[in-house]
Amino acid sequence: MKKIVTTSKAPAPIGPYNQAILNGNTLYTSGQIAINPETGELVMDDIKTEAEMVMQNLKAILDEVGMTFENVIKTTIFLNDMNNFAQVNEVYGSYFNEDTAPARETVAVAALPKFVNVEISVIAVK
């Protein structure tokens, strides 16, 4: 059964979508960008700070349904510039155990919402 997942600890959607959907034991998050959920402002001081905010937003959604990054089975990373890959990967990697890390793809795109540099979505299973 499809359940809408919402938390004030992650940014509110900026369009006709939800933060995440829980279907049975599987969580599908919408792509998260570096919006500070408390202020609604973008956090774009540098690419590492931006990636950290994205991961914290994902963590808030996982927390809302009693999951952690250990439950994540698949991630998708969108970058507007592959030159940022190493720095984003460093931040991203700090959230996962390398031995149990999820499957992942990283793709370069022409532009992202609000012209951010990185967007990440996850699929997690209890």
TrEMBL record:
The record's SUPFAM superfamilies line, in alphabetical order, gives: YjgF-like
Question: What domain of life is recorded for the organism?
Answer: Bacteria
Report the InterPro entries cross-referenced here. Answer: RidA, RutC-like_sf, YjgF/YER057c/UK114
Listed under GO cellular component are:
cytosol
Task: Report the GO molecular function annotations.
Answer: deaminase activity
Similarity-based family: Belongs to the RutC family.
Entry-linked PANTHER family: 2-IMINOBUTANOATE/2-IMINOPROPANOATE DEAMINASE RIDA, 2-IMINOBUTANOATE_2-IMINOPROPANOATE DEAMINASE
UniProt protein name: 2-iminobutanoate/2-iminopropanoate deaminase
Organism annotation:
Aquimarina spongiae
Q: What is the lineage of its organism?
A: Bacteria, Pseudomonadati, Bacteroidota, Flavobacteriia, Flavobacteriales
